Amino acid sequence: MSLYQEIRPVLEEGIDRKELAALRARFIAVNSGRLERARLGMSARQQAVLRLLPLLFHVNHPILPGYVSGTTPAGVSGYEPDPDTLAEAQRLSRSFTYRAVRGKQAQPIHGLFLMGSLGTVAQDEHSDLDVWVCHAPGLAESQLDELARKCAQLETWAEAQGCEAHFFLIDPDRFTQGARDAKLTSDDCGTTQHYLLLDEFYRTAIWLGGRTPLWWLVPDYEEHRYEAYAATLLDKRFVRSEEVLDLGNLGSIPTGEYLGAGLWQLYKAIEAPYKSLFKLLLVEAYANDYPHIRCLSLDFKRAVYANRLELDELDPYIVAYRRIEQYLVNRADHERLALLRRCLYLKINKPLSRTPTGRSKSWKHCLLERLTADWKWDGRQFAQLDGRSQWKVRRVVEERRALVNELTYGYRFLCEFARRQQITCSINGRDFGVLGRRLHAAIERKAGKIEAINLGIAPDLAEHSLTLVQGYDAADDVSWALYEGSLNARRLSDFSPLKRSRELIPLLAWCHRNGVIDVSTHVAVHPGDSGLTEGELFALLTELRQALPMPPQTVPDEALLSPAMPVRVLLLINVGVDPLSPAQPLSFDELSDSLGLGSSPEHLVLSIDQLTLNSWGELIATRYENPAPLADCLRDYLQALPAQGARPNLQVRCFRNAGVSLARRVETVFLDAQAALDEPGESRYLLQIRQHFHMLDLAAGNIRHTALNDMAALLEHLGEAHHTHRPLRLDRHALEGTDLAVILGQARAHCLQVFYRVQNGLAEVTVLDEFNSLWRQQQVFRDEQSLLTPLLRFLQTVSYRRTTQLPFEESRLAAMDILFYRLLSAAPNSPLTLERRPAPREQVSNPFYDIQAIVEPGERGRSQVTLYCNHQEFSSLEYGAELYAAVAHYILAQRRGNERYPCYITDLDLSGLQGGGRTQTVQHLRYKTQLETAINQALQSA
Asked: Structure pTM?
């Protein structure tokens, strides 16, 4: 090829044009060899696409693919199609005739280059054609638009020929300045990899036509003064400008690029580990040598200058492998070196354990044999890797460990590199955080998370047959195990399980998440002490496939910028449990009602298995059992919901007795509670199961669950002060048939509501205060006037005291209405109705007089009480423990005939206890009850 074995031009000593021509010829020779290798790896139709590409950019012809208009930029610099290309064009369209351009015409397409794995040992039938279309600077927007449309049409045409092609428009002037508007390869992560992308371009690009790179003609040892050297070549016309194009040099690569490239390869490695981990290791080897980094493209250029043109040794993947191998050997990192070799072997995809199909071995086959001989691999390793398509769970789990270790190490290395080099670029914060979360979602373990074991390792993990067994572990606790094959009970001890789990649903979810069970898998069941049947198992697996399609969709970066939120939720009720079996603790009445499928079967919920697919693509399993599975599951479901945003797709299923009715009931409870949570402000939701109550305080992100064992506990809880308005929403069947359901359903904010019901000589009075806290009292009924007037006077004075603490204008707005309602029943056991009643009118002749109480803090946490009866003071300072007896004697002395009917507090001041804070009406009512009880007991004893 040349008289010189090595060419080493020195600018100061003068440059020989013959040497430049020889260098160009060497690069063209390597290029031709790679182009031929690329064609060998293609089908006939794909080869036709590759051969025609320069012609299609050289001419605008309506009958050729990619035609947009006669004004679309066309003309490849210095290109003339050869006879083979013209023959291919005429096979495509017989009427096509090529006419050579006469005279000097503009040729705005300066160069066409393939980039990537084509022509390398890593090329396969799925390799893309990534084509750089380098065009003249300064094209008008309309011209660029038409050229982009032409590229899009060519991509469509190529796809129809069985070839995936991508075209990228390059303005060399803008590119050398680091400016570009789009991705430049199908595996490009954007502008953060300008120089590393250029490094990959120079060592992998295949020139298809047009100008050749000026970079070829600048020696590697002159890269540090590339601009000056290139300028000399052009200014002194050693090369003509119309023969070359300049995309820049690799004299210095910013540290941020290694970080960006590493992050991108980590991201890609989660789904395609073998290809991306190879590139990630190269980035690591580069970064490890910083600042004394020598790019592989410079080694490639040095080899061409030295006339070392063996294609195998210049293969970009082999050169990269050699660099990484040396890096790992120097570190004595043998495990990672073994993984590197597996990555390369699987990427080349030439199974050496099988006899080649052709008459002779391909060049890739021969190259791989030489490599593996150096690695001292044996037939067992070939057979294992060549059988990757048949890998199942055990082999995949083993390989996953190595891959996860590498991903974790790579992430930590990049973090440390960024810290050590104090890299402050746009990718340092946001992208590191997103990638960290993406890795966390893919590989981190946590309670309840279903592990995804197949990180792009094997294509299909489905087993032909499996055996599912319930048994007991070493601690004598119930567990489930999954075995390969169909095994009877006697053979189980001879095999180790694929997977163990304390619960059934997480085990089935693991099978579903990883594709271990598909529609054709036969699963034998040994249910042990559980009630699981084959029919129920089949229904569960079918439901998993329908409700939680796998694999999950790719998680966008935006989702990872927010905390993980539930996207799909599947609730499985009473798996393996029959609530109507004699073993379950249902009373006779409950059992009878259940068999009748009454309207409220939620007490039949004995267990809930919840599967949640979240916005990070994680699948989480949670199990809820006695004492309150429904309430606990509901609390956690609501707790996981964001304050705003989309709500998850909720599905509830039960495959047991009363399953459809029970699932529908549970779904209604969840959706009603969710609707209450979505209302503005905080609210509460009351759920009743049997005679137990569950109060859920609904504040987004802070759901509180209070279990209340009976009605008395519920009333006590409803009577607590909370100083904010929190509407109470009742479950549709909570408190059915009770007056409390009617009262709570009538609750209004910022007013006082008095409800009373008269029954069998007793009156039950219920008050909902301004924040809907509840107070209830029973007393002997004489008439409405004596029942309601003392209470009205008390509520009026309390309300007045509160408004006096406010500025006058605010006090007018703060005044509250006092509303009265009577509960009526037309007949025993008939529904209650509510009748609005006017407030009682106080008559002057009524024998009521004021009893005022003032409660203040005392010593040792005890309260000091002062009572005023008709303005007569009775203080605990004076009477001590005999305070209430003294008051009782005074009251009796004022009555005719020593009558002992009850007395009522008409005014109460608690300001001393609140330290200047505002009190709630229910607090006054509670103190009122205590004081009245003490006085009235003293009246009866006097």
From this structure: 0.83
